[in-house]
Specification:
It contains five helices and two strands, in the order ααααββα. By secondary structure, the chain is mainly α. The protein has a single domain, classed as Winged helix-like DNA-binding domain superfamily/Winged helix DNA-binding domain (Arc Repressor Mutant, subunit A). Strands 1-2 form a two-stranded antiparallel ribbon. The radius of gyration is 18 Å and the shape is globular.
């Protein structure tokens, strides 16, 4: 039985049941974000998801169950697992993070100190 992480129910680190706490609990679970990300372009069958993620069948099954209970993922008998409309809306919120991560990777690959914090890695001084 999958323990659902849903708004209105206590979540890890919070007993309030606030929607944001439930979402952070769900998304913070191992492999959850990766599953959402791997479903971004097309549906995938269970075995394909398991192979691309590299997690155990038990883990993938558990996370898919949680995502289905949260109505972020659905199973279509013909094509496999896919994001629901809510799941696609959530994915759109990740896209700015994806763009920022690409910028971050480029910044880290450039010479140290080029337009960022000092060479020691410390934060700029506050005024």
């Amino acid at each position: 039985m999958v323990k659902s992480v849903l708004p209105g129910r206590p979540a890890r680190g919070s007993k309030s049941g606030r929607p944001i706490m439930a979402l952070l609990d769900l998304l913070g679970r191992r492999w959850t974000l990766r599953i959402v990300w791997e479903l971004r372009d097309e549906p995938r069958r269970f075995r394909e998801l398991q192979d691309v993620i590299g997690a155990s069948p038990t883990m993938v099954n558990g996370r898919l169950g949680e995502l289905r209970a949260a109505r972020l993922v659905e199973l279509d008998a013909g094509t496999g697992y896919r994001l629901t409309e809510l799941g696609r809306e959530l994915l759109k919120l990740f896209l700015p993070l994806h763009l920022w991560s690409e910028k971050w990777a480029r910044a880290l690959s450039s010479p140290a100190g080029a337009g960022s914090a000092s060479r020691t890695g410390s934060a700029p001084k506050r005024r």
